[in-house]
Every structure is written in C-alpha cells, then in structure tokens.
Amino acid sequence: MPHRHTNSSERILVHPDYTLHYRQRCHLNWHSEARSHYMILALLDGSWRFAVSNDKGTMRGGDALLVLPNEPLSLRGDEASFVLFSLSPTLVLDCAVRIGFARSDAFVSFHTNLIGGDAKLIRLARDVAEELATDERGKDVVASALVEQVMVHLLRRYARVRRADELELTRAGLIDRRLRRAVELMYAQLDRELSLEEMAAAAYLSPFHFARLFKKATGTTPHAYLAALRLARAETLLAQTDLSITEIAGRVGYSSPSHFAKAFRRATGLSPRVFRAALIKGNSDG
After folding, report:
1. What total number of domains does the chain contain?
2. pLDDT, tens digit (0-9, with 9 covering 90-100), for 179-220
3. What is the pTM of this model?
4. Is residue 4 included in any domain, yes or no?
5. Which ranges of 108-221 would DSSP assign to H, the alpha helix?
6. Do residue 45 and residue 129 come from a single domain?
7. Which among 178, 267, 270 has a CA at the least distance from the CA of 216?
8. Do 228 and 71 form a contact (C-beta atoms < 8 A)?
9. Which positions make up the signal peptide (predicted)?
10. DSSP per residue over 130-156, as a string?
C-alpha cells in the first residue's frame, strides 16, 4: 500500500516522554527561555540565525542544534523545513544507562551546540519527517524506534556526563534538589500567579538568595521558569483533552486567552489553534 501523505505543513506527535514536530517551508521567529526537555533541531533545508546561551551563528540545511534543558534559545529564519525532537530528561538518562554510557546519578550534556555534516542524524530526521507526513498504522511504534536511534547516536558522538549529586528528576524535569520544593509548588499551582516570596518560602530561602540560586542553577528566573511550565502543560492539554483554548488558558494561569495565545506562539512558533490542528491523532491506527 502506498504511503498516504498529508498536505499539512505542520505535523506534531505527542508522547509522554517526547514530542516530535515536523514543519515545512516556514518562517520562524522563536524564543524560548526555559524548557525542561532536551531539544534537537534538525534543519532539513533553508537557513536560521540562532542563539543558544552564549553561542550565536547561522545554521543551514543539513545542520542540527543540540539544546540542553533550560538553555535559552532563539531562532529566526525564512522558508526553512525542520524536525524538532523534544526529549524528557528521564528518557535521555534511561537510554544512557541502558547502553552503559552513564550511571543513574549522572547528568547528560553535549560538548557542542551546533552540529554540521552529520549525515546519519539528518537521515534519521528525514525518516521521522516522512513518518509524520504519512497516515499509516503503527506511527507511534516507528517514531519511538527512531527516537531511540537518534538518542544512541547522539550519546555515542556528542555526549558527555558528569555526576549530578545536586540534581533531582522531578515532574518538571531536572532541578537542583535545593529548589525541588519550590518547583513542585509551581507545578501544583500552574493556574495562579505565584509571588517570589511564596516560591522562596517553599525552598526555605529568602527571596534574594532563592532568586540568585535559581538563576545560577537553571539559567533563568523563577517566573520565566514558571511560564515555561505553564506552556508545557498547555501543550499537553491541547494534545490530550478537548478543552477549549479559553479553558486551557485559565488552567495554566492566563486570564486572557489573547495573552495566552501570544505567549504560546512566542514559545512554540505556533498559535494554540494551529498546534492543536497539527496534532497527529491516535496511536497504532495512524
């Protein structure tokens, strides 16, 4: 049976441990200050200007970008096609442990952000793009297998590990254990505004010392981190529920749907409505 290709330029597959996003020939103006997942962006064609932490430059078709959890990222470009892998820290660490690359108390990082000339990685990304662009049964099985191949390839060629005694895996991803209670409070209170004082009190720190430690540990401010958690939760609600966008906005702390839509577009490059329309429905039935 021939593959049934869709006409959509946006295709998104959401899994509990990863999200895959294939986007074709699009304009991109994307800024993300704090995300709990690893991100691998494979540029299939076109060019982007990028900034990751203190690294800036241009990437072209055939290049890829590796972004650690909570690394600030900015992208800008025209008429580019790409595949984005968003991988949970639990998934990456589990893979590293299973292949004997790291222990369970390790943190996996990469020795570079920009990768050029990695034909195998781009080939795997194109396989993901082809799978997302077709309507065939078993999509989730094939996607998971491809994600595993990508992770093993990256671990073999670009990863490094260090002991992470100060880090814990929480519902919100990797976090300094001294900040865990504050992050758990954020996670539990996504529907309301939290003051710096409330978050600091949860960590048994003064607001000054809490804000300084949080910035040092995560690379971002507490409120920027909270905003990222809200938008990640919004993605899940868009994918897994039939709630209206107005209802979802309220559940993640936005009283104004228009403010929510603006923040969501800034973080993902898509409006909530377009994101939901691009979702691949179902699992084994395509």
Report:
1. 2
2. 889 999 998 999 988 999 999 999 999 999 999 998 888 778
3. 0.84
4. no
5. 119-132, 139-158, 180-188, 196-202, 207-218
6. yes
7. 178
8. no
9. none
10. HHHTB--TTHHHHHHHHHHHHHHHHHH
